[in-house]
Amino acid sequence: MQMKRLFLLEDDLSLINGLSFALQKQGYEITVARTALEADALWKKAIYDLAILDVSLPDGSGFDFCKKIRQTSKVPIMFLTAADEETDIIMGLDIGGDDYITKPFKLAVFLSRINALLRRSENFGTAGTELNSGGICIKLLGGEVYKGGELVELTASEYKLLCLFMENPDQLLSQEQILGRLWDCNERYIDNNSLTVYIHRLRTKIEDDPGEPRRIVTVRGMGYKWNTVD
Description:
By secondary structure, the protein is an alpha/beta fold. It is about 40% helix and about 20% strand. The chain contains 8 helices and 13 strands.
């Protein structure tokens, strides 16, 4: 099996040393950048399987670097930061992050999340190239969504949520299942209320009448399901 290559953008040398040692012990190959400028140069030199980005950098932000990555790559991204504000976490997920862990953290939890992100990425890579249902088409390789042939602009979180629904047509998904499948973040931040907001925003973009949704259907007291529409 080919060794997984991880990209770590972090300016704390002691944390770099600890994480690099732990990840290499798990069999991962690690490339480290300590500034946004260094990250720009190193990112172009190889193809990575996962990116771990600190948010606060001496010369920029991990959020900005995430946006650059998302212009060309669907690689899983984890944010690593001391910030614990809800708005920061939601923004990180919306711009393309897949997970978010705050310092200080337990090493075992960190490694578990890394492994989970890589497993999800592998499963996603084995899927077909398109999902089609109810006049909605997801082109998985390009990360594009079309409704009736027209391109629909979605945030990264909305895109992942739509993929989850369309991969499980007519299947009831509880709020807990959806949160667990999409985000491993602390439920204090990505909770049922946040999910309700994401559902509402997604409906405004893909439903013919968001007030009377026919594709993403609420099953009262139980969750949601993707209704296959003719």
